[in-house]
Amino acid sequence: ARGDPELPATAQAKLECDRLDKADREEKLFRLLDIPDDNLKIKIIECVKSVPLDNLQATEVQFLVDRIALAENLAVGQIEQIIASILEILTELALDQGLAGMRFRRSYTDVILVVLSILTRNSAREVAGLREEATQKEILSEACIGFLLACTQEQWTQALEVMTSRTSIIAMAEILRYEETLNSKGKPVLIEKTGCGRSVAALLFALPFLKIDGSVSKRVLIRLAEVLEGRSASMNITD
């Protein structure tokens, strides 16, 4: 359809989005994700990323959540990129101040534990000397941290409760230990900057797993100082 020439471009785009939404656009796209072609899957997720958040239905958000929850082997094909792209959508939903964001924060707090599990498993991968694998590992870790940071909101109390649970604190300690032993040359995975590292107790729990004179321990000690200064849940903490 060419649209109404009398309408502004943004209004025409919104009308077109609504028309495609009524035609079950996302449902048809999601069906294609069952095709065993990673390049196709990445392109489909990129298409979904262009859809306005308010146009995503509850079943479609659940479909995306299920996709990452069911991911077991993180070293097969381009699964890291697929999960990272889905996490970008979920991150937008976590930060969204509209109705879509409200629905997501109300219903999907448990996704935090799924993402922590993915990040822990991804951090445990040994990729020394494997350039492509190392790049994919870094992409996925960055997407996980981005989502967890988006969940670190004072007003999202349920998310903070999950991130300060024993399960999450143990996961943070594991991730930091893997960071020290397996990621010395990679981009830092700043798990301690998320809500998992918002308390003195959580950070002190992680320290014994680390070399006292190592770079990761120094990061945790800096974070500990920030928490003591009252910057426990800020998303814009200085390094």
Question: Tags for this entry?
Answer:
single chain; 239 residues; globular; disordered N terminus
Could you walk me through the main structural features you see in this protein, from its secondary elements to its overall organization?
With 239 residues, this protein is mostly helical. It has 12 helices and no strands. The chain has helices spanning 9-22, 25-32, 38-49, 58-69, 79-95, 99-107, 111-123, 131-151, 157-163, 166-182, 200-206, 215-228. Helix 4 packs across helix 5 (79-95) and helix 5 crosses helix 6 (99-107). The protein is globular. 32% of the residues are buried.
Which percent range fits the helix content?
A: 55-70%
Order of helices and strands: HHHHHHHHHHHH
- Please describe the biggest sheet, giving its number of strands, its sense, and whether it closes into a barrel: none
Overall form: globular
Structural class: mainly alpha
SS field, number of helical segments: 12
What's the count of strands? 0
Average pLDDT for all residues:
85
Topology:
Blueprint: H1 9-22, H2 25-32, H3 38-49, H4 58-69, H5 79-95, H6 99-107, H7 111-123, H8 131-151, H9 157-163, H10 166-182, H11 200-206, H12 215-228
Helix pairs in contact: 2-3, 3-5, 4-5, 5-6, 5-8, 7-8, 7-10, 10-11, 11-12
